[in-house]
Amino acid sequence: MPLLRHRLVLALLACCAVPLAQASAQRAVCPADPGHAPSGDLTATRVAVAQAGDDEDRLYEGPVWRDGALYLSDFVHNGTFPSRIRRYTPPDRWETVLDGSGSNGLALDADGRLVAATHDRKQVARVDLEDGTRTPLVATFDGQPFNSPNDLVVAADGSLYFTDPDYQREAAPGGQPLTRVYRHHAGATTVVDDGLRNPNGIALSPDGGTLYVAGGTGGGDVLRAYPLRDGVPGPGRDLARISGGDGLAMDCLGNVYVTEHGERRVRVFSPAGEVLATIRVDANITNAAFGGADRRTLFLTGAASLWSIELPVAGLPY
């Protein structure tokens, strides 16, 4: 990022910042002093209490920090992919808050309510954790169900961006002929990109000006960046080559945290595509989100595993 633009972004964040404790319903708020980017080779630590409690082939996915706790999807990797939402409240509380959620990626809307990409109903829905009610936000495209909505992000203007790979397509009937990235806004669903094979992680820059997606191409996996104008994505450009790209997270400086599933690592990329740091774990990894009292704790999900690492920078809660 050019120095002038970087300063302008930080100035905008500073002028609009509110205390993080007051920001649960304002997803993208960053502190006036976000800190500095991590560097070098780092290692995350397992959260010991976050045990699955069985021997099923589970994946933890879609972490989101909300009201002092980390919420995540916990699904069994089989033909029907049963899923539940679990909650980790530091330092040692671990519980199931919703069975039968059918969820993968989780996010927050502008009012701080939980939104889920679900594979059992092949839709994106707002979820009420009290009674389990799901309110569909987008359920079909061209009259057909999606493949298996995977990850999502909600912009300040209400735009919902989400990925639709085919990883859990067999969980329910129907699907799309292509795997795509979508935008849903003002009741209309449009295609952002249909040229990525199994697009997966998705994130927005703190200034709302860039959409990032991890996905496959004929030449391997890439981190792709799309400029946004009034919420509408322009043509994407490949920012970096990645390996087994899965979920994404953003810090308040605009750096992108890419989880690389089989490599068991997160690589931190600057907005210009420079590798700043590598964070390693001891099992396959799926996704990442910032949390903690000052949102400087990076939480990482993976194969029935949850890790955390303290970083010198604040980040976004999913």
Structure, described:
- Helix content is 4%, strand content 47%.
- The chain has 318 residues and is mostly beta strands.
- The protein has a single domain (29-310), classed as TolB, C-terminal domain (Neuraminidase, 6 Propeller).
- Strands 1-25-24-23-22 form a five-stranded mixed sheet, with no helix packed on it.
- Strand 7 (103-108) and strand 8 form a beta hairpin.
- The model is unreliable at 1-26 (pLDDT under 50).
Layout of secondary structure:
Elements: H1 3-16, E1 40-43, E2 45-46, E3 58-66, E4 69-76, E5 83-89, E6 93-98, E7 103-108, E8 114-118, E9 123-127, E10 134-138, E11 140-141, E12 144-145, E13 152-154, E14 160-164, E15 180-185, E16 188-193, E17 202-204, E18 210-217, E19 220-229, E20 232-233, E21 237-242, E22 245-250, E23 256-260, E24 265-269, E25 275-280, E26 285-291, E27 297-302, E28 305-310
Parallel strand pairs: 1-25
Antiparallel strand pairs: 2-28, 3-4, 4-5, 5-6, 7-8, 8-9, 9-10, 11-12, 13-14, 14-15, 15-16, 17-18, 18-19, 19-20, 19-21, 22-23, 23-24, 24-25, 26-27, 27-28
